[in-house]
C-alpha cells in the first residue's frame, strides 16, 4: 500500500489501527477530520489529563501544536500524517481516507512506532502494554466524533 505512513515508517515494532465508514464524501471527511474538535469527548479529555497532556485547545490542529507534534505532510483529501517522534522513538500517526461508494468514506487512523534501541524497545513494550487500550479508546472516540460531524453535515 502506497501511503504516507509507509513512506515515513515502513518498518515498525508496534502499531495501532482503527477504521470507520462515514456517510459523507472523501473531501468533506478529510476536512472535518483536520478541523476536528475533540473537546466534546469527556473520555478523551479525562484520558489526556491522566497522561499529563494539555487539554486547553482540543481541536486536532491545536492538540498537535500543544504537544509539539509536527503536521508533516498531506495528500489532499486522501491522507495526512503527523510526526510524534521522541528521542530514540520514531512515531508516526496518520489519517487515511478512501471512498467506498458515492458519499461514503472509509477513514483509517494508524500509529506506528519504531524503537531505535533494544533498551528503548524493552521500556516501550511495558509502557505500550498499559497505554495501548487507552490510546485505542481515544482513537475510537475521535472516529466516533468524525462520524457524528459527517452525519450532521449531510443531514
Helix-strand blueprint:
Blueprint: H1 4-8, E1 14-22, H2 26-34, H3 42-50, H4 60-66, E2 70-75, E3 79-83, E4 89-101, E5 104-115, H5 118-154
Antiparallel strand pairs: 1-5, 2-3, 3-4, 4-5
Helix pairs in contact: 2-5
Task: Explain this structure.
- A five-stranded antiparallel β-sheet has the order 1-5-4-3-2.
- The protein starts with a helix and ends with a helix.
- It has helices spanning 4-8, 26-34, 42-50, 60-66, 118-154; strands at 14-22, 70-75, 79-83, 89-101, 104-115.
- The chain has one domain (4-154): Alpha-D-Glucose-1,6-Bisphosphate, Chain A, domain 4 (2-Layer Sandwich), CATH 3.30.530.
- The mean pLDDT is 91.
- With 155 residues, it is α+β, with helices and mostly antiparallel strands.
Mean model confidence by pLDDT: 91
Tell me about the biggest sheet? 5 strands, antiparallel
Unreliable runs: none
- Radius of gyration from the CA trace? 15 Å
Structural class: alpha+beta
The name of the CATH topology is: Alpha-D-Glucose-1,6-Bisphosphate, Chain A, domain 4
Would you state the CATH class?
Answer: Alpha Beta
- Whole-number tally of structural domains: 1
| Major β-sheet strand ordering | 1-5-4-3-2
The number of helical runs is: 5
Distance between the termini: 33 Å
Please name the CATH architecture. Answer: 2-Layer Sandwich
- The secondary-structure element order is HEHHHEEEEH
Strand content: 25-35%
Please give the number of β-strands: 5
Shape: globular
Fraction of residues in helices?
A: 40-55%
Primary descriptors:
155 residues; alpha+beta; Alpha-D-Glucose-1,6-Bisphosphate, Chain A, domain 4; 5-stranded antiparallel β-sheet; 5 helices; globular
